[in-house]
Amino acid sequence: MAYESKAVRRVEFSETDMAGIVHYSNFFRYMESAEQAFFRSLGFSVVTDKTDPPIGWPRVRAECDYLQPLHFEDEVEIHLLVSEKRAKSLSYLFRFRKLNSSPPREIARGKLTIVCVTHDADGNMKAAPIPKALADKIQVAPAELLI
Amino acid sequence: MAYESKAVRRVEFSETDMAGIVHYSNFFRYMESAEQAFFRSLGFSVVTDKTDPPIGWPRVRAECDYLQPLHFEDEVEIHLLVSEKRAKSLSYLFRFRKLNSSPPREIARGKLTIVCVTHDADGNMKAAPIPKALADKIQVAPAELLI
Amino acid sequence: MAYESKAVRRVEFSETDMAGIVHYSNFFRYMESAEQAFFRSLGFSVVTDKTDPPIGWPRVRAECDYLQPLHFEDEVEIHLLVSEKRAKSLSYLFRFRKLNSSPPREIARGKLTIVCVTHDADGNMKAAPIPKALADKIQVAPAELLI
Amino acid sequence: MAYESKAVRRVEFSETDMAGIVHYSNFFRYMESAEQAFFRSLGFSVVTDKTDPPIGWPRVRAECDYLQPLHFEDEVEIHLLVSEKRAKSLSYLFRFRKLNSSPPREIARGKLTIVCVTHDADGNMKAAPIPKALADKIQVAPAELLI
Distance (Å) from the C-alpha of residue C14 to the closest C-alpha of chain B? Predict the structure, then answer.
């Protein structure tokens, strides 16, 4: 059972904006890349055709609090923690830490709620239970890590 | 005094992802483009060197609830409403409506809080009062529009 | 028969980078949005399920020469010209003009070659003739416009 | 003296489009990230305030040929090779190889030309010689690697 995952990336030039810092929308792309690493660490992928019927994971809610900016070539750690697990949805907490400061400091915090869906004959999405093989591998993080 | 602004855009191919819908991070770019139109409608720009000292508008909090997906070439209206006005910060509510459905329907709702800052000699940002010429043109939207 | 299309857009904050100018990769997104407007002007879409079999338009070659930078809130016109038309492919020339300079000036020039494809049973793409209904509406621009 | 650099990345969900493949504009972001790694390998950065006067590296020409598509979670190697070195400019060749195919295969090839610039008092860019400390570390790749 797993409840966390860490990913590290270095800020790229194309992720900055004219204010000289990472554009705020990119934090949501960062969150997603950490989620993809989390799924891979469980032997799964957020995109799969191995389930029957095929499932998808639309985002239903996203948020981010920005404490300090990130700059070009900063190293940022994205720490994913499972904050809620329901039959058909998952929620994550993300802590962004800038590693190249002394000491490393939290510079942003995000949350994401995703829903497991299948598609009906017309292509419309419908919430569906998380496949057991995956659900059995995921648990909620200890409360003290979610403060 | 103004409290709202509307922008319309058509979904571009590059804004979609392999799920066939607009990538969730792009809603935050959409919010920002509506904010830029709001500032222009007041005779200002979110980027200006006309104030002394120069100011900037970092985002300190962003969130979005996703109700329905957007697809390629959908027409989406982004309705900005000023939800809070403080000495040094502004908050917006954004309603996303898909215009090419009958009737047009709200498909997402976002919030954004921005802070007015100046930069000290070391380049560090420091919260500062919103310039009077701009603040005098902005008011909070009527409560019934913010429900 | 059509051989050109013009689209105008205003540079958004999220399209800039820390050099204070539009990131060079975004010119390729701009080209594509002009192409989408071109198809719509012909009563088609670059994404369609109306053909049997369904077709797609992968890009096989792209290039851009950058003469002058674009800045935030600049108004840029993207002028698409059909430069080559073959049985299974199309090539475009794009002229980027900054409208808010006096006089408006060409600030970049791009080229794009796309191929019409269908997908076999395994999902692999295979070049296919451009559907006649569409091909009949497109012609190559006069040579003097392509210099 | 160095003439090459290799970077590996895994395709992220946000880099795909509704055709289910990496959006063609992202290959230009990939090229740039390989270039940033190349500069770092030389003990420099593409963004620096250590030179007097400060320099920048605008792109003046970019191109890419697409042979095969990239999909979500593909591993791609971007191999940068210096193809031309002049007093005030550099050109690169980029080979994109998909590592998770057997055998790994070249799926795209790009080229980029950048110019070293300084800024005059009005902020206008002007071509300038590449600083000697950097130029001394860069050489053109052997001809047989540039075919």
Answer: 7
Full DSSP string of B111-125 = EEEEE-EEE-TTS-E
Note the pLDDT tens digit of each residue in C38-96.
999 999 998 877 777 889 999 999 999 999 999 999 999 999 999 999 999 999 999 99
Residue A143 dihedral angles phi and psi, to the nearest 5°: -55, -35
**CA proximity to B41, closest of B74, B91, B90, B3:** B3
Q: How far apart are CA B54 and CA C12, in angstroms?
A: 20
Catalytic residue (choose from A17, A65, A120, A136):
A17
- Residue C119 pairs in a beta bridge with C125
Q: How far apart are the first and last CA of chain B?
A: 21
The residues near A142 (Cβ < 8 Å, ≥ 6 apart) are A3
Is the Cβ pair A62, B61 closer than 8 Å? no
* Ramachandran angles phi, psi of D68, nearest 5°: -140, 150
For A82-125, how does the pLDDT look when each residue is reduced to its tens digit (9 = 90+)?
A: 999 999 999 999 999 999 999 999 999 999 999 999 988 887 88
User: Quick check: pTM over 0.90?
Assistant: yes
Whether the Cβ atoms of residue B6 and residue B78 lie closer than 8 Å to each other:
yes
Distance between B13 CA and the closest CA of chain D, angstroms:
7
The answer to whether the CB atoms of B29 and C40 lie below 8 A apart is: no
The β-bridge partners of C90 are C85, C114
Total length of chain C: 147
What's the CA gap between C30 and C39, in Å, rounded?
A: 15
- Sign of the CA dihedral B20, B25, B31, B32? negative
Residue B65 to residue B82: CA distance in whole angstroms? 18
Return the closest-CA partner of residue A14 out of B52, D14, C113: D14
Provide, as residue numbers in chain A, all residues whose Cβ is less than 8 Å from the Cβ of D73: 36, 40, 45, 47
